[in-house]
Amino acid sequence: MPTDTMQIEDTIKKSLESFGAEPEDITRDATLESLDIDSLDLAELSQIVEEQFGVQLTGADVAAVKTVGDAIDLVAERS
Fold first, then answer.
1. Domains in the chain and their CATH numbers?
2. How far apart are the first and last CA of the chain?
3. Cα–Cα dist 53/26, whole Å
């Protein structure tokens, strides 16, 4: 059974907020760079995704993620 995309989106957005991104700035088109999300934040996000959804992301996966939508789509695709 595929994981609900809305649940994935909600988890990712809440995680980005906890890293300091402003909630109103977190859109599917927002780049992680514009949200000041750094590599340490991405590593933590990878752990959250693995714990919540059982999806393991490699360094290459994370490096390819440029926008919030990319992150959501990647996790949805793998779950």
1. 5-78 (1.10.1200.10)
2. 9
3. 21
